[in-house]
Amino acid sequence: MPSVVREMPLFASLTMLHVTNHWQMRACDGLRVVLQHREMREIESMRARTGPMRGPGIADLASEASNWAEEYLASETHVQEIGPGGDWTKEFLEQQHGLTSPDIIPDSDTRWAHEYLSETLLDEAASAEASKWVEEYNPQEDSELARTANELLGTVDDPKFSNTEFMSFIKILGEGAKTDTNKDWSEEFLTSNSKEAGSLAESWSAEFIKERRQPHERWGEEFAKQLGSLDNMTIDSETMSTKEKEDFWQNLQDEWEKMAREDELTEHPWLSEFNSTAFEPFKNYQFEEDNPLKDHPDPLSEGKRCLEAGDLPSAVLLFEAAAQQSPENAEAWLLLGVTHAENEQDPSAISALRRCVEIDPNNSVAWMALATSYTNESYQTLACNSLKEWIRVNPEYNHSLPINDEAIHRKPRLMATTLAPRELIQEVQDLYIAAANQRPGENIDADVQCGLGVLFNLTGEYEKAIDCFNASLSVRPKDAKLWNKLGATLANSERSEEAIDAYRNALEISPGFIRCRYNLGISCINLGAHRRRGEDQVGRNLHELCLITSGQH
Amino acid sequence: MSDDNVRILRTPGHHGYGVKFSPFNPNLVAVATGQNFGLLGRGKLILSDLCLPDDGVVSSCEWSDALFDLTWSEQSPNNIVTASGDGTLHLWDTANPQAPLMVYQEHLKEVYSVDWSQTQDYQVFVSASWDTTLKLWDPNRSRSLMTMTGHEALVYQAVWSPHLSGCIASVAGDGILRIWNTKKNSQPSITIRVCEGEVLSCDWCKYNENVIATASTDANIYGWDLRQPTLPIFILFGHEYPVRRVKFSPFIETQLASASYDFTTRVWDHTAPSPCLEVMKNHTEFVYGLDLSNHKEGVMADCAWDQTVAIYHPGKPHLTPHEALQ
C-alpha cells in the first residue's frame, strides 16, 4: 500500500517541478498516489481489512520443506576477487554456487489462496465504490486534487499532449465539468454537478502562490520565493520562449533536488567515478608528483639499464624524468609506456604511448604496444585503429592501405567504444592476413603474427590467436612479452595449465615482469577454483609461484 | 506506413501498461491494463489469440487495482504473473481466469515490473517496486526468497539476463542501472550512472552477454558494455520525449526497439550509420508496453493509453494472422 502522509508533499512538489513535458509522467504517477489516498480514506471506513502480510525473516524460511530454498538461503559465498576489469562474466559465474533447480513442492498454500480470494470479493465491492467516486467527484470539495490537476494542465502547452484523452481526464479532475470531446469514455466521468469553467490555466499561478504557505514544507517556501522574484514575468506559455521556460523550471528542479538531497544520510562518493566521463580516455599523462630521480643526469640510459635488470618501478621513474626533461623525445615516451604495460598499468601506458605517437607517428613499436594495451582495457575500436596504424607506418605492408584513410579522424566519442564495428575488425584482419601471406613459408614476421594474435584476442577467436603467437615465438623465442601474450590467450580460453607453462617461460627470461607474474597468479587461482581433483598439480604450481616470488627477494 | 500491416486489438475502458508474447505459442499475446489510465479503479489481464478475428480475446483476469506489468511463465504455457498497483503480484492460470492461483503480497508500494527468469535452470521471477526494492520469488511460495535493496528511488524495471543464470539488471528513478547476482547475495554487483534524469527501462542484448541498453527521461537510449561501464558504447537519439521501454531483438544482435511518450515506437540498429530504421506512429497516446516475438522474426506488439494494442511487422507489406504468425 502506498504510504500515507508522506506522499502528499512529495507529490505536490513533483507536480510543481514536472512542468517541462519531460516529466509529465512522473506528475501523473504522483496524481495517481493522491487519488489512491482519497480512495483509501473512504474505503477504510467501510470495512475491516486484514493488514498486508509482511515478508518473514530469512530464518523463518529456512524451516520450510524445500531443499533448493534451504541451500539457496544458506549459501554465502566468499570468493576472492579474481582480477581487474576484463571478464566480468567469469567473475560473475565464479561467485555462484551450483544450485539444483527447485522442486515443485506440493502446494500447501492453496488454502491461503482461497482465503485471499474471499477477500477479493470484498475488494470488488470496494472498487465499485471507487468507480462511483469518479462519477461523483466534486472538485470543490477536494480542492487539493483539483488544484494539482489544474497545475498539471497549466504546464502543458504542446498541442500533441493537450489533445490527448489523458489530458481530458486531468481536465475533468480539475474542472469537474463535462468536456467537449466526443469520446465515448468521457460519458463515464460525467458528474451531476457542473462546475463553472473558470479561468483555470491562467489563475493557477495566483492560486498557487496564495496556497503554498505551509511552513513545514521548506521547499514550498523556496518555491514561493522564486516565484515571487519572478512576479514581473508572466508565466504564460505564449510569451515565454522555450529556453526561458526551461531555464526557469530547470532552476526550480535543481533547487528541489538540492533540498531533497540535503537530507540524505549517505552520499555515494564512489559513484562520482562514473560521473566523470571523459569521452577522450587517457588524454593527459599524469606524472608522479614526488619523483626522487627527477634530476638524474641521464635518465634514459639509466632507465634502460633498470629495465634490463627487471627493476620496473625505478625504470618508470627514470623514464618519467627523461620525458619531463625532454618532452619531445619520442623514445622516452615509448619506453615509459612500454614499462608501464609490463608493470600492469595499462591506462598509464596508453597515455604515455599516445604522447609518443603524437611526436613520432611512424613509431611502429608504439602502435603495437598501444594496440595491446587497448585490447586489455576492452577498447576495441581504438585497438583496431592502432593495429591499422602499425600497418600504415610499416613500409613493407602499407601498400595495401588507401592513402586517404579517414579512420584516425573519426570523432573521439565513437572511438572510445568497447565494440568495434564488424567492418573495422574485418578490415584490419584482412590487412594482417595479407601481410602474413606476403612473407612466404618459414620467413615469418613476428610482429605481424603478434598483431594478428592481438586481433584474434579482440574477437575472442582464441585458438587462432594461439597459433599466431606460437608462430611468432618460433622466430623470437626469447621474447618474454610474447610468451606472456601466449599465456594470456591460453588462460582466456580456459587452458590454464598450459598458460602457466607459458608464463613460467616468460618469467625465466624476464623475472621482473610483473604483469606476467600477476597473470600467473590468476591462472593458478583459476585452476584451483575449477579443479577439484589434480590438486597435486595446483599445489605444485602454487609452490613454484611461491618459490619464484621468494627467490626474487 | 499502410494500415495493412498493422493489426489493432482494442482494450476498451482499459489503458495498456505492458504487453508480452507467449514464449510457447506464437499467436498468443497478453496485455496488462488498468482503468482510468491506471490511476484509479481496477485492472485487467487480457489474453488474445491472433488467430481469432477482431480483438481475439480468449480470456481476461481481473484484479481490484491496475496491473502494471506481466510476465509469462517459462515452465507452464498457461501461467502468467502480473504486477499491480496495490503492491501485490499474482499468478494466473489462463484456463481458469476467475481468480489467481497465488497472490504474492509483500511490497509496500506499486509493483511496476515483473520478469520471469530467462535461464532454464532457475524458475523464479523478480519484481521491481516503487518501494525501491526488488524481490525474488519462487512461484510456488507465497513469501519472497530475497529482497534486494540499493536503489534510492522508484524502481522502474528489472530484467533477467538471458545468458547468466541469476543475473538481473534494474533501473530506477535515481538514474542508476544496477546489476545483481542473486546467487551470491542481495547487494548490487555493478552500479552505473546512466544519466541525470530517470531511467525507465533496460534490456539485455540477446547475443552479447556484456551489452545492456537503457531508456531514460532525457529521450535517449544508451548502450553499455559491462566490461567498461564508464562510457556508453552507443547513444541513440531521435525520440522527442522520455523513452518508456526498450527491447533488444531476439533475432538480430544489433537491433532494438523502443517505445516513447512521443507516441511512437522505433526500431534501431546501433551499428548502422543512421541508426533509426523505422518510426511507427500507431498510437495517439503514450506508448507504454512493447514486446518482440521470439517466434516470428520482426513481429512486434505495443500497447498504449489509447486503449489499443498494435501488432505489426515493420517493413513487411502484408500481415495477416495466418501468414505471418503461424
Provide an overview of this structure.
The complex is a heterodimer of chains A (about 550) and B (about 325). Chain A is about 65% helix and about 0% strand. Chain A is mainly alpha-helical and about 550 residues long. In chain A, about 35% of the residues are buried. Chain B contains 1 helix and 28 strands. In chain B, about 0% of the residues lie in helices and about 50% in strands. In chain B, the strands form 7 sheets. Chain B has a 4-stranded antiparallel beta sheet, with no helix packed on it. Chain B is mainly beta and about 325 residues long. The interface between A and B is large, with 86 and 87 residues. Chain B: It is found in: Cytoplasm, Cytosol; Peroxisome matrix. Chain B: One of its GO terms (molecular function) is peroxisome matrix targeting signal-2 binding. Chain B: It holds the Pfam family WD40.
> So what's the oligomer here?
heterodimer
* Whole-number count of domains of chain B: 1
In sequence order, what are the helices and strands of chain A, one letter per element?
HHHHHHHHHHHHHHHHHHHHHHHHHHH
Outline type of chain A = elongated
How many β-strand stretches of chain A? 0
The name of the CATH architecture of chain B is: 7 Propeller
**Which chains have the largest interface?**
A-B, 86 and 87 residues
- Strand proportion of chain A, as a percent range, falls in under 5%
How does the SSE layout of this entry go?
The complex is a heterodimer of chains A (553) and B (326).
Chain A: H1 7-17, H2 24-46, H3 58-62, H4 67-74, H5 88-94, H6 110-136, H7 143-155, H8 159-162, H9 165-175, H10 200-211, H11 218-229, H12 242-262, H13 272-275, H14 299-309, H15 312-325, H16 330-342, H17 346-359, H18 364-376, H19 380-392, H20 412-415, H21 422-438, H22 446-459, H23 462-475, H24 480-492, H25 496-509, H26 514-530, H27 535-552
Chain B: E1 6-10, E2 15-21, E3 28-34, E4 43-49, E5 57-63, E6 67-72, E7 79-84, E8 88-93, E9 102-105, E10 111-116, E11 125-129, E12 134-137, E13 146-148, E14 155-160, E15 167-172, E16 176-181, E17 188-193, E18 199-204, E19 211-216, E20 221-225, E21 232-236, E22 243-248, E23 255-260, E24 265-269, E25 276-280, E26 287-292, E27 300-304, E28 308-312, H1 321-325
